[in-house]
Amino acid sequence: MQYPNLERGCRKLNEESMNLISNLGFPIAVAVYLLIRFEKKIGMLETAINKLTIILSSKEKK
């Protein structure tokens, strides 16, 4: 027993899912790349803010 409608439906679903992946894959890859790059910069900013906080608190004590 064959199910031609089911086969067409699966084929269409597969095409739609491949289309969705190809349309969303690039933006997702760019977002991940930017998040990784910004994570390092945010860490550096956090370190600088902590150092400035220590410097300012030591100047206030004087």
From TrEMBL:
Keywords: Membrane, Transmembrane, Transmembrane helix. The chain crosses the membrane at residues 20-36. The keyword Transmembrane helix applies. This is YvrJ family protein. It comes from Sporosarcina quadrami.
